[in-house]
Sequence to fold (140 residues):
Amino acid sequence: MSSQYTAVATATGENRAGGRTFTDDGLLDVTLQVPKELGGPGGGTNPEQLFAVGWSSCFLGAVKLVAAQRKLPVKDLAVVAEITLNADGGEFDLSAVLHVEASGIDEQTAVELGQAAHQVCPYSKAVAGNIPVTIDATVA
Fold:
């Protein structure tokens, strides 16, 4: 497989407690903060949010690809990614829920579409077997 694109980002400072992360092209530059839910001050983004943004976007593209291949009349498509940081006795890991939201198809078809997209999405492939992932669907 040939390389098509490489994203380059740098993190500096106090990591998720007031650090900064930015891309080499300057298009993304964010201050990191521990969320209020974890006892931090909030007011910045965190690695879980950045992962959720990337995965939801990538997964949306995978769902659209699979829907087009199957000639499904999907409308109003969205993917909501919930990334949870789990802590147990000083050990940390992630879990994920991917919600496919669509219209134009029934719920079972939407779930099947999400499962098929999970097989082709590069983010899904990257975490396969490493974190628990739940895929569900809502149709309007």
In short: The chain has a mean pLDDT of 95. The chain has three helices and six strands.
